[in-house]
Amino acid sequence: MFYLLKSAPQIDPFQLLRPYAWVIPVLILLFVAKEVFRSAKFKGWLGEKLVHLAALKKLDPDKYKILNDLYLPRPDGNGTTQLDHVVVSVFGVFVIETKNYANWIFGSETQRQWTQKVFKKSYKFQNPLHQNDLHINALALFLEADKSLFHNLVFFVGGSTFKTEMPVNVVNKGFRKCIESHQSPILTEEQASFVYETLLKYDQSLDRKKVAKEHVRSLKARK
Asked: Cα–Cα 20 to 30 A to 45, which of 5, 39, 84, 205?
């Protein structure tokens, strides 16, 4: 019996595992994908895309002109600020901030920070109305226009539930109707066209990759 055991063929464990070699890179890929999907940057990007593909695409193109992911100089001259969406029409210029937050949201128009509650954990984030007011200031300065021509609109995607009473310009559904509810012209057709063409030409003149990198760099520096 000892002889039989001693003379038994040696089995290479790596040879046995070779047919399953693909499992390890797949597991690594799944782990990386999970971390990416959970990141705030990816969620923000996804939120913007959801707004663009769903609500904004349904607006009448003859009445509304859309610009996405627009970079403008900050009013204080300290880097740039990024606007998720700008919708130009004779009914005003809609400046849209998107938030891809799920679960419960608490906040008010005057609070400096709002709260997202996920089960027993709470997370603070900047009041998006205040954040978007910076975007409007940047637009008004860039276009040399009065702030009364702009509408501050915040849209939450991702299945969030408001647990406090929100201003009418903060919504988690009925986004398109919120824009279309403004039916009093405050710009002429010529003025609206000028605003859109000015922003479009400026956006097309930018080296977007370079501007995006500089934007992230200035964000980190301010923090």
From this structure: 205
**pLDDT confidence of 126, banded at 50, 70, 90?**
very high
* pTM greater than 0.90 (yes/no): no
CB 36 within 8 A of CB 46: no
Long-range CB contacts for residues 212-218, cutoff 8 Å, separation at least 24: 212/71, 214/79, 214/80, 215/71, 215/79, 215/80, 215/82, 217/79, 218/78, 218/79, 218/80
In a domain, 3, yes or no: no
Domain count, the chain: 1
CA 54-44-111 angle, to 5 degrees, is 105
Q: Rounded CA gap, 195 and 192, in Å?
A: 5
In tens, the pLDDT along 94-105 reads: 999 999 888 999
Query: Does 109 fall in a domain?
Result: yes
Task: State which residues form the domain around 22.
Answer: 14-222
